[in-house]
Amino acid sequence: MTKVTYIEEYVVPQLFTTAFESYEFEHSKKKPSKEYGKLETFGLLWGYSIPAKGDLPARVVATMATVETSATRHEDWVQPNFNSIIAKKKFFERHWQNIELVGTFHSHPYDDLDDVRVNKGWQGSTEDKEFWPEFHERVAPEQELLTHLVVTIVKLSKRGWALPSRLRGAEEMSGYKLTADDRKFWLRAYASSREWEGEYAFSDDMALQVPALHDFMKWTSP
Length: 222
Prior knowledge:
This protein has five helices and twelve strands. By secondary structure, it is of the alpha/beta class.
């Protein structure tokens, strides 16, 4: 049965603005003394999970997103600080017991639109699909299901506007794409799950529901 990630309204701006901040604005590093742009970024999704019931699939509901500012960022990869993540998870468990860690998000920055299309840059990389189960086992082994979002961004040569739409083909229910000014975004969902044998596995059967994008399409359509 397909699983579902549900992204609440206030999470959406955080995902997109975090991606383009790392993409467009330079970030200073002490060693070496150089400034970098077009970096990947990494963050956490918080909310709650609903197990499968009858004909209803398991659902992950993200109500909030936080950015891992301690993550090491690069043009081609991002490495989160696990000590930071575990500390935040314990903090929430103690002081905000109505929400829990439900997943991660990270960005894929691209220089060229054709590169995104040729490489299907909105999809998780081989390294992502290996990392997500490792993250699950290391950070949230008690969770049955986590969601993992890829936020892909590229700068366009001309300004334009394209309403949010679903990805095409077999990926239709797992992601969206949209154009805003001179930026194009893709949002794609994956999952990691705890198996019966105590193993943690990647899966590509996570549907994505973002009502804010559907509302946007509805209210701005002619």
